[in-house]
Specification:
This protein is an all-beta fold. It is built from no helices and 28 strands. The relative contact order is 0.10.
Amino acid sequence: MTEENYFLLLKDKETISLNIYDNNKIKEQKTFAISDKSIYATDQKERVAILDTAKNTITLYDIKTSKETELSIPYDIEPRCILLNNDNLFMGGEKYGEIIVQYQISIGRWHQLEIPKEVFLRYKAIDDLVIKDSLLMAIDNEIIPKYILFYQLNATEKLPFSHFKELKSNKPNEDIHQGRITPDYFGLRSNAEFLRGHSQHITIYKGLDLTESFAISSMKRKVIYENNENYHTYNDFLIIGNKVIIASKEAGLGLFEIEDSYFKITSDDIWEKGFNHQISDSAVSYRAYPNKNIIQLTQIPNTTKIILTIENNNRDIKYEIIEI
């Protein structure tokens, strides 16, 4: 078994499992109790972290020694996300504005990371965290303008703030839920409510300057005579190579191939400036899963295989492995 080979799967509404993939099979290593107030993560090689947002406590589990450590969070925070990286645990959320917390595991030291005054605003939050090379990237959610905050990773100290970039939007009232990053692309999953309806979006950026982008979009309008049968809710997504894989509540499993021609640089037109180039969800190829809901997509580490976590009408869960 190689390092960075562990992954988490949802077993049921009260349990997650730690797994490896060996001999073409998912092999369960351990299970953990969760609730609907839990947020969880693994670094895929050493640790699992489970955050109880009701109690604001974290359980750290050491995979090799089976040691469990209970942590009380010494900050007033409403957590939205956690991330494990080497000896650090990071947590993002809100409390009268964005907040990012770092915990150095080996020495038991907490830090609250800097949020620049140009970005900080009441009611904003950090909804997800991703890592690209030597940078921690925090996704600033809610209220235009939205930003990506960059911090310089290091192994032994509080992370210094590096810079921030403003995000383009899909709709004025847009709520970002999830980020995914690969060597070539940075993706965001979001939804928006607007006067005449609501919409779902998966936005793809090429490079970290965030100037070239497009968004796969599905819209539902509050108009009696308009056909909304093709509106799709996005539960999860992955980016593998030049392919975007989408879990849709209504349509099943979607596949979309990224082409360079889709990317547009921010226009100088006042009506387009700051908004992503839109591509209709009709361009996505879907495979239906009747009476089933794909609620989660998990890439098996170091492979191009994906595990679909599928829930049926009775809320029973099963898995399906596909090759991309």
